Amino acid sequence: MPNWIAVCMLSDIPVLGSRRVARDRGPQVALFRTADDRVHALLDRCPHKAGPLSQGIVFGDAVACPLHNWTIALDTGCAREPDDGRTPVFQVKLEEGQVMLDRDELDTVGIDLPPVAAGPCTRATC
Ligand code: FES
């Protein structure tokens, strides 16, 4: 059973845009908002060469990776053909305008993967 925690408001995520959720370890989690206000959460790490999916372009139910333009399905994390690969997906719940993620997934999913290959700095010392 999910252990839901609120991470932001739906209104904090731009329509057809993204927002990142920081974790103590491992790559961050990218939240994506579709044009019809659905929210998907993926590990912010492209299955190709670890590009930052949160910096990609959201269209329909997919995001185009900013590094080499692979298209990743937001619901499954799978790359669209002819490319092949999958980034981990997180459960999302919307409740009264709040975006909620499962604490247990945040603490475990993709936690041992190396950081993204490019993108905005996440450390105060950078
Ligand atoms: S790293 Fe995402 S398409 Fe290459």
Distance between the termini: 38 Å
The unique ligands bound to this protein are: FE2/S2 (inorganic) cluster
What is the CATH topology?
Rieske Iron-sulfur Protein
The CATH architecture designation is 3-layer Sandwich
Into how many domains do the coordinates divide?
A: 1
What is the string of SSEs from the N terminus onward? Answer: EEEEEEEEEEH
Main β sheet profile: 4 strands, antiparallel
Helix segment count?
A: 1
**Broad structural category:** mainly beta
The portion of residues forming beta strands comes to: 25-35%
Please tally the β strands and state the result: 10
Instruction: Catalogue the unreliable spans.
Output: none
* Average pLDDT over all residues: 93
Helicity level: under 10%
Overall morphology: globular
The radius of gyration is: 14 Å
CATH homologous superfamily? Rieske [2Fe-2S] iron-sulphur domain
Please tell me about this protein's structure:
The structure is a single chain. The chain has one domain (4-108): Rieske [2Fe-2S] iron-sulphur domain (Rieske Iron-sulfur Protein). The protein has one helix and ten strands; from the N terminus they run E-E-E-E-E-E-E-E-E-E-H. The chain has a four-stranded antiparallel sheet with strand order 2-3-4-8, with no helix packed on it. A three-stranded antiparallel sheet has the order 1-10-9. A three-stranded antiparallel sheet has the order 5-6-7, with no helix packed on it. The radius of gyration is 14 Å and the shape is globular. 5% of the residues lie in helices and 33% in strands. It is mainly β and 126 residues long. The chain binds FE2/S2 (inorganic) cluster. Keywords: 2Fe-2S, Iron, Iron-sulfur, Metal-binding, Nitrate assimilation, Oxidoreductase. This is Nitrite reductase small subunit NirD. Pfam families: Rieske_2 (PF13806).
